[in-house]
Backbone:
């Protein structure tokens, strides 16, 4: 079986040592007191982490790095696994965030999702949060992708979501859990830990909906379909997030046939007075009915948006108007206090 190297990356950064570069054309690299070792590896010495950071920054700014592989070693002749240059560069210049991703304390927050027609609670989206130090999820996951650590952070987010719901949410209420497709190289292998966690914490598989985040564009639709099919084979549901933001809407829905589709905030904002957005929403509704997909509108921030989406029979909704992410799941009673119902 082939394993994803991002699952077990070599993160060791010697306090002093050598930056090893592998490139087919050495003459394109800056002159940094290098010498060659075996296998045409270009070795650059450094005396401390600050000097290493300076050397990496110079190479990054002066050279096209897309085809450069890199590694760090105390001895330049040590056998190393080489990674894309960008991974090594980001791991060094973002060391604090890398440490947070690998060792930090995180929490899984809950944002409520309701039936728009009745206002009744349907489920919660599980959202990873960091507080020591506080780092935005966008920045955190962006750094994880740049450093090749998305598999680690993605897995931690899934673990926390499952553990948190087992303590806080009763059976029958759904949990929407994000995942990054590139974090899953081989679905049957990479997701085994998740499936074991579901059994360990006594969570019903059909209460879990795993949703593709739009952090990255869909690059391999067949691979994504394989991931979704693996979740389904274990009794779970799947969702596409941020529909309309980067996807070829209708082709993707027809190919993947998710159980849920979440419409991006850009089509929800002021939808009650924007004819173009209304046309888009109605087309998605029609296709979703044809394919038996449940539609969820995200980013609802006003009563006018909520009421319009009710009027066109969008199934589910979430957003700050309904409830913000919180450490403890909002109760049905607190939701009814502000949601307009028919």
Residues:
């Amino acid at each position: 079986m082939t394993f994803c190297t991002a699952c077990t990356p070599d993160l060791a950064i010697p306090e002093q040592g050598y930056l090893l570069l592998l490139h087919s054309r050495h003459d394109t690299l800056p002159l940094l007191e290098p010498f060659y070792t075996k296998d045409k590896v270009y070795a650059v010495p450094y005396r401390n982490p600050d000097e290493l950071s300076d050397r990496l920054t110079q190479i990054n700014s002066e050279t096209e790095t897309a085809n450069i592989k890199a590694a760090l070693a105390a001895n330049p002749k040590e056998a190393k696994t080489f990674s894309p240059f960008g991974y090594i560069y980001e791991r060094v210049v973002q060391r604090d965030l890398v440490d947070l991703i690998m060792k930090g304390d995180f929490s899984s927050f809950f944002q409520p999702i309701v039936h728009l027609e009745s206002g009744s609670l349907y489920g919660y989206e599980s959202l990873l949060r960091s507080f020591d130090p506080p780092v935005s999820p966008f920045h955190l996951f962006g750094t994880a992708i740049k450093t090749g650590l998305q598999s680690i952070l993605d897995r931690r987010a899934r673990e926390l979501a499952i553990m948190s719901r087992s303590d806080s949410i009763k059976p029958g209420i759904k949990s929407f859990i994000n995942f990054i497709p590139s974090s899953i190289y081989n679905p049957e292998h990479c997701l085994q830990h998740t499936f074991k966690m579901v059994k360990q914490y006594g969570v019903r598989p059909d209460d879990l909906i795993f949703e593709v985040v739009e952090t990255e564009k869909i690059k391999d639709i067949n691979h994504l379909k394989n991931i979704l099919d693996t979740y389904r084979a274990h009794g779970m549901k799947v969702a596409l997030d941020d529909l309309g933001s980067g996807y070829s809407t209708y082709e993707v829905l027809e190919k993947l046939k998710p159980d849920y589709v979440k419409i991006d905030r850009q089509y929800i904002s002021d939808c009650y007075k924007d004819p173009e957005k209304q046309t888009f929403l109605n087309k998605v509704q029609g296709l979703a009915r044809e394919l038996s997909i449940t539609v969820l509108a995200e980013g609802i921030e006003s009563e006018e948006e909520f009421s319009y989406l009710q009027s066109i029979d969008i199934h589910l909704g979430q957003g700050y108007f309904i409830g913000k992410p919180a450490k403890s799941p909002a109760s049905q009673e607190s939701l009814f206090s502000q949601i307009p119902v028919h």
